[in-house]
Amino acid sequence: MPSHPIAPPPPQSSPAPVDDQPGLLDPLFPGGSPIAFETDDRSPFSDRYSIPREREKLVDLIEADDPDPHDPRWARYELYLQRCDALKQMEAEYRVTAGADATVEPVVATQLRDLGSLVDDGVDTMTLHTKEGFRMFMGRRRDPAGQYNAIPGGKRVASSLKALWALTRNNNPYADWALLRADHRIPELRRSLDRQAQLLSAELKKRADKGLGFGILKSREPKVLELGFRSPYGYVIAELIVEFDYYVRVVKTLGRKALFSDKEAHDAIRQFTRPMRAAFEEFIRFET
Where is this region: Disordered (predicted)? Predict the structure, then answer.
C-alpha cells in the first residue's frame, strides 16, 4: 500500500503572557457576577490588580462629576476606588517604616531617620620616609633666581582634582574628561609601582632564603602628615604618593646592600618620577 504523508499538527497559538491575563474577584454578594480586572506583574497587590490599567478601562466613570451607579461596570469602579485607598495606605505604611522588612517593628524602623551622618572623629595621616616621596607630595615653586623649574606636587594636584570634581556637578564636559583621565592614569601608576616594588623585593627575598636577611630601609624620623582632603581624589593621590615612597625605600635598600649601582638606583627612581610629574602637570592644566 502506498504510504500517505502524515499531515503536521496545526500550529498551536502561544499562551498569552501572564501579564495580560485578566483577574477575577469573587462577587460582592451571593449570586452576583465575579468582578473582572486588569493585572500586572509589577502590581503591589497579591492578586496582581493593576490600578493604571483599570484607570484606562474606567476613565469615563472616574472623571465623571456624577458617575452612574447603574453602569454595568459599577462594581468594578467601586473595586478601583477601594484599591486606590488600599494603595495609599500601603504607601503611608512604607514611608512610616522606611521600607523596612515586615518582620521589623515600626518603632525600630523609624529610628533610621534619627541616625546621624558619618563624621571624621579621627585624623587621616600619611607617613613618608624618603625625601623623594616628600618632594613628590610637596612639589616645588620656581626659585627667584630662575635656576630651578617648578615641580608639580601631590598637594597641588589634589586641589586641582577637587576643583574639577566640583565642576562635574555642573555637567562640565572638560572636567568629566579630566577625571576620566585621572581615574585611568593614577591607578595605572599605582599598580606599576606596586608591581615593580614586588619584583625588587623578590631579590631581597632570594637572599633571605639563603640566610642573608635584608630589611627595607626606613627613616629614622619619618614625617607624619595630616591629610584632611575634601574630595576622594585627594586620598587617591595620597595613596599614590605612599606607593612611590615605599618603592623608593626598596630601591635605596638595593643600593645600600650593593645590589644596585648608584646609577641603577637613580634610573629606577627616575623611571617613575617622570610619568608621575607628567600626569600631575596634565591635571593642573585641565583645571586652568
Answer: 1-47
